[in-house]
């Protein structure tokens, strides 16, 4: 059973939207993160997807929280949500299903084992396709049919046509919106068929959070850390993101990395050591001087210089 609830009561911004909320929960409903900060435009796009059964694709750099945004909207709607990563190893049989040999009454028998698509499409589930632009062509054409409103799934091997559950929803995240690896940042990203992209009803873009909002999130996770230290940490993170955009760095700090850094400061009581262990050691050796310069600009000391108590 579902009930209609004002979206403003759930997401903290003004809107006249009313959204369906499930009365009962199950194991597939994501856990609510009370400190999560919602981007209004992306949240409205997702709510349109949940409420009006629109197919929603979220585009943005990695680390912007595209998948977690979908999950946190689903969590507040008490809506089951399942994520599938479209990496190069995912096959058509993983999506559709395959024949498997099992024992029944002591005899070997062959039976069809459903893949994730037949399983999800028959249930009140929000299916999220992560790394959508990294999917193999044969996999993408399987998905194309069910992208249409009310699109049915045909299982040729079973002579079955599956009609979607009324509360089945479909979302995806991507880095390039089907344009391929134009700037060399996303190896493995594929150019997508225009007919495939055209079937997504809504395409939303998600960037990194404003600094003050990100500081609020980090403070909620590390309440004992001084606010000025957190501000400097977020400033470093934004420098890495700008460096990534212009090609100076091959990696960047996501909000998750900043939170990890803050938590490690609490452990080691040294902001520089925590930074090295949380991010610097993940960087290419040739790029570490650039990262050290970012740190020096924001903290007014060298990275390898011991710090005093920072909390």
From TrEMBL:
The keyword Membrane does not apply. GO terms for cellular component: preribosome, large subunit precursor. GO terms for molecular function: ATP binding; ATP hydrolysis activity. Residues 56-182 form the ATPase dynein-related AAA domain. One of its GO terms (biological process) is ribosomal large subunit assembly. Residues 2-29 form the Cobaltochelatase subunit CobS N-terminal domain. Keywords: ATP-binding, Nucleotide-binding. This is AAA domain-containing protein.
